[in-house]
Amino acid sequence: MHLVDTQQNYYCPGEDHPITAAVHHSRQAAGYYRCRECEHRIIDRNRNDQTLQGIELPNLQNSAVLIQQHRLRGTYLQELTFNTLLQKVYLHLPELWQQHLRTFRQDQSSSPTTFFRPTLAIGSDERPASLELYRDLQLELCLTGIHLVDLGSLPASLFAFAINYFQLNGGVYLTGSGCGAAYGGLDLFRERGIPWTLEDRKNTHELRNRTANFRPRLSRSSGTKRIERIETAYVAHLQKYFHGLRPLKVCLTVSSEAYEETIRSIFERLPCQLDLEVTHLWGYSFSERPPEINHPWETRSIPTLGNPVNKRMSARIKEQRADFGMVMGEDGGACQLFDETGNAVEQDRTCALIHWGMEHELPGCPLFVSQNRVTERFSAQGTSQGIQQVSTSLSTSAMVLDHQRQGLGWLEDGAFWYYDQHPRCDAMISLAWILKSLSYSDETCKTVLDRIPV
Predict the structure, then answer these.
(1) Which one, of 378, 157, 307, 377, lies nearest residue 367 by Cα?
(2) Angle between helices 427-439 and 231-238 in degrees, nearest 10
(3) pLDDT tens-place string over residues 82-94
């Protein structure tokens, strides 16, 4: 914060509009998180600097808006505002249409006058912060000349499926998944719903040197927007996975109310019984490792066994006498399995169960495990079980599945990837393969897990 004129107007770090001295002092008195970065607080003698330094703000040194691979997270209206989010989007969108423009020119060599504009999907989860950012971002993206497909509020797994289904050039998904209720952010996707990461971009140095006021524009005319719904096509596409099942009772917990109708429509045609509960999973963790707070979104890493959602699931399984239970993540991709006793199943054992079921229908199905997901039990089996270690980059690992045209990938905490015409991370596909694995015999979930080598 610095003095800009004789009228004692101030600028807070990251804000373009001036504030008065009264607002400046009130923010310092309230312990505003940006006061730690304020240069003017040293000059201001009306406040005791030691008092300001003594304010305990957790993870303040790491509270800036950061991008890690395809995720952007920050506390809404503090670390993350609409302007900061828009700057991040503008910094990376030109790489998208430049890539497709080269391909377009090659395909349209006979008609060089045709102008290319990328078509992007836009959607959000059900968080209030995401809905506000989603509403404002639509207009700004149209002003750049981009055509938009509005998918509404839906889980990220459906959003990625829609990008491939409508053959779009990419997508911007507003979400704070993996973080607490105060967080917002976005995920970036390329064509076919593959995560769009920094490692994919060649001109990273050029991106860092772009100014904060950089605003790309394809043409003087704005883009168009159309509204599409993907739920019906999604349900029809999943039917091929849910077949050959024995009657099982399943307890499910999901976060999205829009996802509830989709799941019920799938189970209407199955011999299985469904006990479905919808609850907000904001801040729910699928990590089994101790918390390592290095980025804002990693504050979700709370002990899994002590989570109230897990305790509720364990009680429901015992009360309903279900065969197994599953908690689906807020993004619709990650999942946590529970056996018939209500105990949470380790992720490596869940991965082994899914891979065992896939090998019955796809003999020789490879298993790809991210380097930071490899456990001692996985390392003991090694290549004898067809396990291949892949990069920790989510996009690079997803492309390995794309080149193999088959396989199972355990690339993130609780998230399993499959090749289904394109790499996909979907908890519903994980549920289908678990149902298949338990339908090959009449044994209980715990018995099947115990006899599958990990």
Answers:
(1) 378
(2) 20
(3) 887 887 777 767 6
